[in-house]
């Protein structure tokens, strides 16, 4: 995993967040005129192709409207290396490589990224950050790592990877009513049915990407005894959201209750040592502490493929998370744009909003409040902290809500107003 060390700040554009900015981007301007591109500055001999360092884009082919391309950098050596966020993209025309331009007012944020020995880092770049409309063709991403340069080739053309389907999966609403196990298997879904099990290796690939912080998606399809599909989507870090979006679709289950598609945001992927769960708790032990610590188990039949590898990978993720972050319980707002987190400091909480984060201390009016035990969002702008006290009552602290904080046994919402039940 990568560790970033700040070196120097250039005179970058205000508000630049991803290394460069100011590009008009894909679909916003005409292509560069033919012959207007500068030839590549590099010869084949300028690149290290020994295999010591391997850069690879997530997919080989992307649709022309895809907004972003993710990649990995694998260090197959015993040396620790440093590289920056800078990169270049080139396009091949008639067998010759040409530079894809950046906007004239672009500036890099100069930071160093650590690539540890025998480790893998991930990165991404937005096509809109380049001053070019990406047409079908062959391209390459160029990165300087240490004192050498490396590249990864990719293509733009007909592909399942598009703006609408960034992971190659069709939206749930567009799947056919009679979605069969054969069709699901052919689409790359993990399938559990009476007819067989397919694509179980996709779980390990999903966990590996999540461990790197790469956006990723896992689709599982189970079939009822009547043969109806129940589809589960787990989407991690789409648009760099940082959370897991879990969708449950039982709309095709003819004998199920409350058919439809529901979705829930979870903060973490954790394990009890045997299975994998989505949770707002940063680790399994936290599920015993916080009263709203609901989890969603990623279903995996006992007779399916062994998942000890993914379980061990999630254990490593959890160990690193708990060692490098104070949050032990984190709940996102319904829209996913804000979050509130709890730490081992029992009477404080973290509140994160776009571009702003802060630690707040809980008001303890009579000194009887002992610990914040849960977070309940009322809407995208307000939430309630549910707290234990030294008495039999709970303390409810309303933040941004239409209502008053106080002691009681429960709470309710009446006409949009938060009320405490005495």
Automatic annotation (TrEMBL):
Q: Where is the Bacterial Ig-like domain?
A: 55-154
Q: What stretches pass through the bilayer?
A: none
Which keywords label this protein?
A: Signal
UniProt keyword Chloroplast present: no
One Pfam family this sequence matches: DUF4362
Q: Give the InterPro entries listed for this entry.
A: Big_14, DUF4362
Keyword Glycoprotein included in the entry's annotation: no
Extent of the signal sequence = 1-18
User: What's the superkingdom here?
Assistant: Bacteria
Q: What is this protein called?
A: Bacterial Ig-like domain-containing protein
């Amino acid at each position: 995993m990568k560790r970033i060390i700040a070196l120097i700040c250039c005179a970058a554009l205000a508000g630049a967040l991803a290394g460069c900015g100011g590009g008009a981007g894909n679909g916003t301007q005409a292509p560069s005129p033919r012959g207007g591109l500068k030839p590549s500055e590099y010869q084949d001999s300028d690149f290290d192709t020994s295999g010591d360092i391997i850069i690879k884009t997530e997919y080989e082919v992307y649709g022309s409207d895809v907004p972003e391309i993710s990649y990995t950098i694998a260090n197959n050596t015993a040396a620790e290396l440093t590289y920056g966020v800078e990169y270049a993209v080139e396009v091949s025309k008639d067998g010759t490589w040409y530079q894809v331009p950046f906007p004239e007012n672009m500036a890099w944020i100069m930071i160093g990224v650590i690539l540890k020995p025998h480790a893998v880092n991930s990165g991404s770049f937005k096509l809109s950050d380049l001053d070019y409309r990406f047409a079908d063709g062959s391209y390459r991403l160029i990165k300087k790592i240490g004192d050498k340069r490396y590249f990864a080739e990719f293509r733009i053309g007909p592909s399942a990877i598009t703006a609408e389907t960034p992971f190659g999966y069709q939206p749930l609403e567009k799947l056919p009513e009679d979605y069969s196990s054969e069709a699901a298997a052919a689409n790359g879904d993990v399938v559990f049915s009476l007819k067989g099990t397919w694509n179980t290796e996709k779980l390990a690939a999903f966990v590996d990407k999540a461990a790197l912080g790469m956006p990723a998606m896992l689709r599982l399809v189970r079939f009822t005894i009547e043969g109806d599909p129940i589809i589960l989507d787990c989407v991690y870090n789409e648009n760099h959201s940082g959370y897991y979006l879990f969708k449950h679709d039982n709309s095709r289950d003819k004998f199920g209750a409350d058919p439809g598609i529901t979705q829930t945001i979870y903060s973490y992927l954790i394990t009890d040592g045997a299975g994998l769960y989505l949770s707002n708790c940063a680790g399994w032990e936290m599920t015993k502490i916080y009263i709203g610590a609901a989890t969603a188990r990623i279903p995996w039949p006992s007779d399916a493929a062994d998942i000890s590898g993914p379980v061990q990978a999630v254990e490593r993720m959890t160990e690193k998370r708990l060692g490098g972050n104070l949050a032990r319980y984190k709940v996102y707002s319904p829209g996913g744009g804000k979050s509130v987190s709890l730490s081992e400091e029992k009477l404080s909480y973290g509140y994160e909003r776009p571009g702003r984060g802060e630690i707040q201390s809980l008001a303890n009016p009579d000194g009887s409040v002992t610990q914040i035990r849960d977070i309940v969002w009322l809407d995208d702008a307000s939430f309630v902290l549910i707290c234990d006290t030294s008495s039999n009552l709970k303390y409810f602290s309303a933040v941004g809500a239409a209502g008053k904080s106080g002691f009681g046994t429960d709470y309710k919402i009446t006409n949009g107003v938060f009320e405490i039940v005495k």
